[in-house]
Amino acid sequence: MLQSLHVKNLALMQETEVEFGMGLNILTGETGAGKSLLIGSVTLALGGKFDKEMLRKGTDSALVELVFATHDERVREKLIQLDLEPEEDGTVIISRRMQVGKSVYKLNGETVTAKQVKELAELLIDIHGQHEHQSLLNKKKHMEILDAYCGEAFLPVAEEVEQAYRECRELQKALEEESMDEEAKAKEQALAEFELQEIEQANLKPGEDEELEQKYRLMVNSKRITESLAESYQYTGNDFEGGAGSALSRALRALGSISALDSRLGELEGQLAEIDNLLADYNRDVAEYMGDCEFDGEDFAAVEERLNLINHLKGKYGNTIEDVISYGQERQRLLDKLTDYETYICQLEGKLAESKKRLETLCAKLSDIRGKNAVALTKQLKTALVHLNFLTVEFEIVVNRTRNITAKGYDDVEFLISTNPGESMKPLSQVASGGELSRIMLAIKTVLAGRDSIDTLIFDEIDTGISGRTAWRVSEQLDTVAHAHQVLCITHLPQIAAMADRHFVIEKSSRSDNTITDIRVLEEEESLGELARLLGSDALTDAALSNAREMRVQAVGHKEKREREG
User: Fold this and answer.
1) What pLDDT, in 10s, does the model give residues 478-526?
2) DSSP letter string, 317-364
3) Residue 293: enclosing H or E segment and its boundaries?
4) Residue 535 to residues 206, 395, 494: CA-CA distances in angstroms?
5) Residue 453 to residue 125: CA distance in whole angstroms
6) What is the rounded distance in angstroms from the CA atom of residue 400 to the CA atom of residue 379?
């Protein structure tokens, strides 16, 4: 569940921290006090869009921090997948520091990306925005809802359908690209033969260009290299009177005449002898290197010509010899295909036919799952709608096959409803009002909440367009959901506020020429006063408080009845 929310320097909120509890957390306040802003800050922490206008005036950064407590194994696995160590007590801390043009997200103190936060948030919280019920007017949303209800058995089949669909598209695209007439095929074949012959005749070997380039540099600079080496050889050899070799020989003879007189002199002689041997090795290596520098003009011309050929091929077919060889292999495969083109096309068509057949089979399997779950979901939603004061409602989820197949199969899903006796069922978009859509969405959330393990649900003004007895029914339904989940609900209706397990008020005040929005939890008497205000009372009269108290008693009675009935 969401344990706490900490907000700093966001719009009218200077610094606010609130601790939520289990059950039904109700948030109320005057219009414009910042109720939706508080819930909006949760959305921001989870990757919502940030605008510089959201910063509190006079500040350059804002902070939102959420603290969750969860023992969901899926959350633990996701944290491990993100290379984060899960806390033993199940604590998950998500924070986002926002500046103009920059946001920093952190998970349990480790910097992460917005995408990673969103992936984890899907397992922690479900947010119902103010206008989300309007999405029910789009049929695509109907399929999303049904698919979410279908559960775990649905997911692997849906993934297979998506994979098979992509495979079909790729084969279809390949077949379309391969369609060419005889003239085009002849041109393609002639070009491939020419390119392959050019590459094969070169008889390239990996790494050959590097060896040739090294040899070419040596040849181009051979004169300067030979002259410098000869000079070095002269000064280190024995042939030159002033050379190091001659000097070492004289030094060794001088030490040799006295080395027998003392063991330390013998050690010095050994050291000098080692230097003499090293110098002799050096001179032999120099002589050998100078020998390698000897070449004639034909050798130079051959190396230069070979390098030019290799660079020419690299310029046409790839940046490296390996690339050129790989290109030649591709040309060979193309020639093999063009040589027996009709057979290749037939094989491709056969693969496409098999792929389509497999896709059809999987779509039928997916449709069967949707059909069976549509019946069950229809029954549950109808029951939930009756509880929400749709007393004569008829509801059905229709799953029809279409001619087109997409990555989601070939089904078309639509919600049909009739709210008046004797009227035929029609598409939801044609008959439902704003208030009805709100209740239908609540019914959907209620049913889906019973099938997933997300702990926290947020409703931002789910009570749009309702009042009176219907508001009580919505209140009772929220309490039912809150019995198994943590629910945070912003409302302006006293019937819903009366059902609170924990009641918060959001207030706007002026301090030192600054406007500040704050939130605090209400004690029982304070909650009654807020209920009286929501009932329309300007003053806390005995009559207004009595009305609020009666409403609260009714809500408590419902809770006690729900507990008794299990």
Assistant:
1) 998 888 889 999 988 999 999 999 999 988 887 767 778 888 999 999 9
2) H-SSHHHHHHHHHHHHHHHHHHHTHHHHHHHHHHHHHHHHHHHHHHHH
3) none
4) 85, 33, 6
5) 10
6) 18
